[in-house]
Structure formats: structure tokens, C-alpha cells
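Entry 14. Ran structure prediction on the chain below.
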Amino acid sequence: MSDLPPSGEPSDTVPGFAEGLPTAPAESPPRRVSSKAILVAAIVVVVGVAAASAVAAFFLLRGSGEELLGKVPGDADVVVVAYLDPSAGQKVNLLRMAEKFPDLGGQQDLQQQVNDWLDQAFEGAGLTHDDFGWVGVEAAVAVDVRRDEDPSVAVLVDSDDDEAAQAALQKLAEGSDVGTHTEQVDGVEITVSDDSSGAYALFDGTVVVGSDQLAVENVIKTGKGDVAGIRENQAFKDATASLPEGRLGLAFVNVQQLSGSFSDVLDAAFAGAGTSDVDAIEGVAMTLSAESDGMAMDMVTAYDQTRLTPEQAAAMSAPDRANPLLGMVPADAYGTYALEHLDTTLQSAVDQLTEQDAEVAQQLDDLGLTGDGGLLSQLSGDLAFEVAPAADVPLGGAVIIGTNDPTATAATLTDLLDQLPLGGSKLVPMHGPGGGMRVVDVPATWATQEYRDVTITYLKSSSEFPFAWAIVGDAAVLGSSPADVQGIVDLSLDGGGIDQDPGFTSAVSSVPSGDGMLFVDVQGALEGVRAQLDPSEQADFDEQMKNVAPISTVVMGAAGDASAQHMRLLVGIP
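Output, C-alpha cells:
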């Protein structure tokens, strides 16, 4: 199993810059709002403010901890945390990347955009951006997805100034035509709407706004240590254990808990595909982080191994290996997708399908995909798909499939391709009194050519669907033209594939790749498209792509075993 790369973020923070957003000035009389429940509106307010305040906090270099997780109930089904004041390293990386995107503007422009948005969004409630100077370093949302009921939602926002936070909440409440009353829970005063549409409280430096009183009470009890928090939840611990510590945000879904409550719904949703793999998932966690080489999203899916079938466990634990087919992908490819263990993955899927429907098994056998000597038994498990420049057309590509039995795979492909309607169609006159025209299928006609001792089979030029294929060493190559296949033959014999390209190897080194990887050369693709345009159109293209041009590559990779699967997506912004 490949480990995720370290986040590379400094653990210490830079002192100073401790001021937050400006605190509220003298209040002006608030406007009256409609009959919407005030505390439901408050949830929208604090979530929006938390997201917007994050932009401003990026320009401060103090860094925040993870205090709010200690107040999130352990039985929450969904948890999202935004680090409004991330570590110094995260901010340095963000500032460096932000400067490359023209539409983001400078610090003052970005702050003004945030302020304008807040002023417009909350004008009806009599609030401005100055009313939210109390927002601190973190915000979190905890959701309890209850069966046959509306979800229970709690929003937690760290407060830098409890007095200003209380004033903002009171100002919002006074602008509503829904009355409120107070309740005492564990020594904390909770304000509850008279129509039971929501509640809020301020305790221990945290503003809590809930869709119901119970949501707020659960947060208070968790913060006081009366009930277990999300950090003690085993699914949360397993899913977050290997995620980067330097991050801008965290999300967690307790899949096992949800599947227990909604097993019948999942059974219906995944009917025909099997749900045992879904049932085995403990939880899924994801982080977003700013790295020195771009923006990264890491996701971990944690599994309960006792719920996996032996076949699933074996497929997920197959030893990692380098994909030899990458050597047959052109170095100038705009993008490539490589996969290992395709054979075990497909076999597991086929086993689940055939267990539920015996007719499916027979259909797959008839197509020559399964059974003794079927295509599935011939696969080595390696696959590569590539899109690259072509000689006669703007774009070409190929699918490269590893095989353990090239001769048998050639025969299987011949039979399979003969069954597909690849010949196209044509209009022919209709005989009879009415006359007219009708569409008829045209059988595919094939031809072959020899190229460096490799037989390339292709559809004749009269076909509407250009296509060619060949067996090249231990791989079946299905290309968009004979020229594409010839290029792959050259790479297999002479070398020089994408696996030797420094730009490719550098980009994919930032992601795990034991189970597969995706690579997109954004710069190469932009240059290729631009070259196809008339000179008069290139300036417009450059303007339209100015916020894409800073991106060099997009890479995604995955690796894991039967306990957890790790995936990382990195948008390269050097």
C-alpha cells in the first residue's frame, strides 16, 4: 500500500496578526423581516459568514487549532469543519496561488468582495459585515440524518468576542416576528423560538445554532464531556487517521451508521450491483489543503474488514505494482488514466452480478467475456487509456489492455468486434407506391496492415467510425486510427513513453498510485487547442482561459488495502 505524501506544512504558527475582522460599530435600528423562523435563518447566516470570513482569515498568519471537534456529538452522521484561520504554511501557499488568478484580485479587492456579499445577503435582516467581527478561527456543521424526519442540524462557530456575538444574535432575533423564550441546560442558557423552529446558545467561546433545541443541547453536553464526541467515534478515527494535518477543511460521513438506518434504501438504490461493499464501509473522510505545488483533496474510505467477502478483501489487498503499460503511452499525451488490478476488480463485480441473476452470467459467457477461456481470464489486470495529439485530426487516443494470453485475446476481440455495429449506416430508396428513403445498417469491413512485425486491423476509410486495433507484445491496443496504433508500437519497441517524462513523473509522485492514477496535462491541452485556432481567435481564447492557464496539471491517484482506501486529487499550481 502506498502512503499518502506528507502535507509538508509547518507545525508552528507565526505570532502577531491576532486581530480578526473589525468588530461591530454602533447599531442602527434593524429592519423587520418576514415571518420566517428566526433561528432557521440564523443557521444560514452563520454558515455563510463562516465561509466568507475564511477568505479574510487567509491573510492572517496565526493558525487555528481543532477545538470545535471536541464539541461535535459522536453520533453525528455528517460533520464538516472549516478552518477559517489555517496554519501559516497553508496561508503562504494560498497567497502564492491566489496571485496567479487574475479574477481573484489582491487582498483588498477580495476583502471588499466578501464585505459586499455579506451586506447584500443580510440586508433584509438589518445586518452588515461589521456585525460579524466576532467570528473566530473555526466553523463546523453537524448533521443527524433521522429516519422519516427532517435532519437535525447544529452549526458551531468559534467566537473571538462573545459580547459582539451575543449582540449580533440578539439583533437578528429582534428583526423577526417569531417570539423566543429561554431554557437552562447544564447551566447554559438556550434561546428557543416559540414555534420550535430553532434554537441558539453561546457557551465556552462557541456560538451554537440548531434546527431544534435538542441539536443545541447535544453540542453543549458533548462540550461539557457528558456524552462522547466525534473524536471518540471509531469510524471517524479510522477514516481520519492518515489524512494530512495541514488543511483548510474536513468532512466526514459515518456511512456505517447511515447504512444501518437506511439499509432498505441502499438495497433498492444498488439493486443489481450488490451492496456488500457499501455495507462494509465504516466511514468516509475528506480534507482540502493548500500544498506547495497546488491544491489537494485527500479522501479516505475506511472499511470494516469483517463485512467484506473473501473475494472483495483479496481484490482490495492485491499487491501494488508499477503499471508497465505507461511505457506505451505517448509522452505528449494530454491525459492518461492507468489502472492496476482490473482483473480482480471486474471478477468481484461479476461475482456479485451473477449471484443475483443467473441470466447475466449466461449473457456474459455468450459474449466471450467470462467462462473458461473468456476475456476476463486473459487479463493481466493492467489498463491504460490515453488521449494525445494526432497527425491528421486534432485528437487521437487509445485503450491499452494487458493480457496474459495475446493469441486468445486476439481471437476474443475479433469475435466481439464482429458483433458490434461499427459499419455505420446509409440512406437507400424505398420501393413501392410511396417511395421515400430509409436508413439501413452497413456491415463493417476490415483491412489489415503490417507495421514492424505487428498486424494492425482497421476499419476501412469508408466507415463512419475510425478504429484500429492490434496485439502489441502483451497488450491489446484499441486506437482511434492505424496511426495511433503505430505510435504505440514504436513506443513499445523504442521506449520514450510518458513514464520517462520528467513532467509526468514529478506530477504523479505527489499522489498514491498503487491502485490507479489519472493525469491531465492542462498546459499541453491548452496549447494544443490554441494551435488549432486561427491567429485572430487566439487572443479571445487566451482571455477566456486566463483563470485556467495557471494550472499546470491535474493528477489523481489511489492506493490501499482491505482496511482503507486512500485517494488524492492534486490540482497543480506551481
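The CA atoms of residues 238 and 302 lie 6 Å apart. Will compare against last week's run tomorrow.
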